[in-house]
Amino acid sequence: MIAQIGTLEVVVVFILAAVMALVGMIPFWFICKKAGLSPWLSLIMIIPFGGLVLPFIVAFMDWPALRRDSSGQPQP
Fold first, then answer.
1. Kind plus residue range of the DSSP H or E element containing 69
2. What is the pLDDT of residue 30?
3. Side-chain half-sphere of 46: how many Cα atoms within 13 Å?
4. HSE of 28 in the Cβ direction (CA atoms, 13 Å)?
5. Residues 6 or more apart in contact with residue 63 via CB below 8 angstroms
6. What's the rounded Cα separation, in Å, for the pair 42 and 44?
7. How far apart are CA 54 and CA 14, in angstroms?
8. Exposure of 29 by Cβ count < 10 A (0-12 exposed, 13-18 middle, 19+ buried)?
9. Dihedrals φ, ψ of 30, to 5°?
């Protein structure tokens, strides 16, 4: 017999998916802010496979916090 999906189950799955999306976005919000990117870029985590793309963007970019001037001192 084929199980029928009730409205309550659909609502619960939707709520769980929304909570998991937020839990995934919060750390990337702060990572993007510290990397000098717009924190709104963390919304990419909502898009399918966005969770695979954003870490690569952040990993291979030049971070402003790691930039140094000619004397080796960090730039403000």
1. none
2. 92
3. 8
4. 22
5. 35, 36
6. 5
7. 23
8. middle
9. -75, -35
Structure pTM? 0.63
Cβ atoms within 10 Å of 16's Cβ, excluding its own: 10
Per-residue pLDDT reduced to its tens digit, 10-24 = 888 889 988 888 888
Work out the burial of residue 14: count CB atoms within 10 Å of its CB; fewer than 13 is exposed, 13-18 middle, 19 or more buried: exposed
- The Cα 29–Cα 32 span in angstroms is 5
The pLDDT tens digits of the residues spanning 22-67 come to: 888 899 899 888 888 888 988 888 887 878 888 888 888 887 767 7
CA distance 49 to 43: 12
